[in-house]
Specification:
Elements (H helix, E strand, L loop, with lengths): L1 E7 L8 E5 L4 E6 L8 H6 L11 E3 L5 H4 L13 E4 L1 H31 L11 H8 L2 E3 L5 E5 L2 E7 L7 E9 L2 E7 L22 E5 L10 H17 L3 E5 L5 H14 L9 E4 L1 H11 L7 H8 L2 H5 L3 E3 L3 H6 L7 E5 L9 H8 L5 E5 L8 H6 L4 E4 L2 E4 L3 E4 L9 H8 L8 E5 L3 H15 L11 E4 L1
Parallel strand pairs: 3-4, 4-5, 5-6, 10-11, 11-20, 12-15, 12-16, 13-14, 13-15, 16-19
Antiparallel strand pairs: 1-2, 1-21, 2-3, 7-8, 8-9, 9-10, 17-18
Helix pairs in contact: 3-4, 3-7
Bound molecules: zinc ion (ZN) (2 copies).
Length: 466
């Protein structure tokens, strides 16, 4: 008998983690941090049902922090198994986890200074960069399509998920006394037709499917309209000699933005010499990793690369490395586009660019990503008269634009189409990674179209497969 323990991303979209126990081995699929809810810090410290000493392997779908952010915790608790993911995911994982460790260590130092003065007990960081290093030593690259033995009687295969570079859905082939069972974990599924990446590829058959439901019951936002709006704003701002600040997540969104800027140049809507600054060390590293994996591109991006077209289009692109260079950008007010992180304006260099440009009438902020409740990015979207940044009150005179539609997730119909080929083997279908309303809507549609009754487990529920 096989059991699956649901450690997160049920009734929400963060904290993904599924512990599979085959009777002979334990394998963990994803182990991310919770980013929604109030008691995040404590929840993220918890390993739940996972005993790292008894864990044979971890298989990771992709490098987003809500899927991988708790993995280094395993190292402090005796994990000696192996970590399997695609080569691109492993490269991005290093970038993501090192950045998170650095922020954790800095935050903890600051919190502890305050706690010591107050005579309170000090706290430990969630994990350290040393633990990230130890984790990465256990990494075993797994190419798309290739079957790899990950633990006793468990083989894993990764297939394209089209969500971010390296993202994969995972098939686990598990030996049981009466034959093999195949479990499929969708991971996060991308939308069809996203730039750079190939479309998701559904596995052919399964006994059980755990699938995401982010856009259950809804179409995803219209990408075509979003891209048109994005280019219109860029074109007008550049023509008027104005500044555009684009806060963007380092992995995924930054590269999408660069791709559409290149397209705007190709269409003659933006001069190839108009300065574009990429000012985020993490986004720069992520962009280099994307550049190093042409084998994962879709046909269009591959063609552009063969003709060295993207470099030609983006010849106005400047990479900002040092902090003084970043500061110098705001000593002048020359027209330019600045792409910077963090994505939700909660830290990083983008904060400084906002502080120095929001008060200008001839500036624009282009919001292209999700802004969670309580973040500076979300506050900006409410277009306040003034806003507090780094202890200073800044007038908001810049135009704030919101572009919805650069989503990295499949819409309702695309989710159903992904599941469709597997329904011929009548699998059990388990829905996760979506708000409850979205899960219910998708479950209803799956029942109607395929006659399967999809299950919606809660946190710490255990599902058994005969
Ligand atoms: Zn993701
Ligand atoms: Zn996710």
């Amino acid at each position: 008998m096989i059991s699956i323990h649901f450690c997160g991303a049920v009734g929400g979209v963060t904290g993904s983690g599924y512990l599979v126990d085959t009777g002979k081995a334990r394998v963990l699929v994803d182990f991310g941090i919770f980013q929604d809810g109030d008691d995040q810090r404590e929840r993220n410290r918890s390993l739940g049902p996972v005993d790292p000493r008894r864990l044979g392997a971890v298989v990771l779908t992709h490098a987003h922090i809500d899927h991988c952010g708790r993995l280094p915790l395993l190292m402090a608790n005796g994990f000696t198994g192996s970590l399997h993911a695609t080569p691109a995911t492993l490269e991005l994982l290093e970038v993501m986890l090192e950045d998170m460790a650095r922020i954790e260590e800095e935050d903890t130092r600051r919190i502890n200074r305050r706690r010591r003065r107050a005579g309170e007990e000090t706290i430990r960081p969630l994990f350290t960069s040393q633990q990230v290093g130890q984790l990465l030593q256990r990494a075993r690259p797994m190419r798309l399509g290739q079957m790899a033995e990950v633990a006793t009687g468990v083989r894993a295969r990764a297939v394209e998920a089209g969500h971010i570079l390296g993202s994969a859905s995972i098939e686990l082939h598990i030996d049981q006394d009466d034959g093999e069972r195949c479990l499929v974990f969708s991971g996060d599924l991308g939308p069809g037709g996203a730039p750079i990446l190939r479309d998701p590829e559904p596995p052919a058959a399964a006994d059980l499917v755990v699938m995401e439901s982010t856009y259950g019951g809804r179409p995803r936002p219209d990408t075509r309209r979003a891209v048109a709006e994005f280019k219109r704003i860029i074109e007008q701002a550049a023509a008027a000699g104005e500044r555009v600040i684009i806060p963007a997540f380092a992995v995924g969104r930054t590269q999408t933005v660069l791709y559409y800027l290149a397209e705007a140049v190709r269409e003659g809507r933006l001069s190839p010499d108009f300065p574009i600054y990429l000012d985020s060390p993490m986004a720069t590293r992520a962009t280099q990793i994307v550049g190093a994996h042409p084998e994962l591109y879709d046909d269009e991006t591959r063609r552009l690369r063969e003709h060295r077209q993207l470099e030609a289009d983006l010849r106005g692109l400047r990479i900002i490395e040092s902090v003084p260079e970043s500061i110098a950008l705001n000593d002048s007010d020359h027209p330019c586009i600045i792409i910077s992180a963090s994505g939700m304006c909660e830290g990083g260099r983008v904060i400084h660019h906002l502080k120095h440009n929001l008060w200008r009438r001839n500036a624009h902020v282009l919001v292209v990503g999700y802004m969670a409740e309580g973040t500076l990015g979300r506050k900006l979207l409410e277009r306040p008269e003034r806003i507090e940044i780094l202890g200073e009150h800044i007038a908001v005179r810049a135009d704030i634009h919101r572009i919805e539609g650069f989503s990295a997730h499949a819409g309702h119909e695309e989710l159903l189409n992904w599941l469709s080929p597997m329904t011929t083997t009548h699998p059990r279908v388990i829905l996760t990674h979506g708000e409850d309303e979205a899960r219910r809507a998708l479950a209803l549609a799956i029942g109607k179209r395929f006659g399967l009754s999809a299950e919606c487990p809660g946190i710490d529920d255990v599902i058994r497969l005969e």
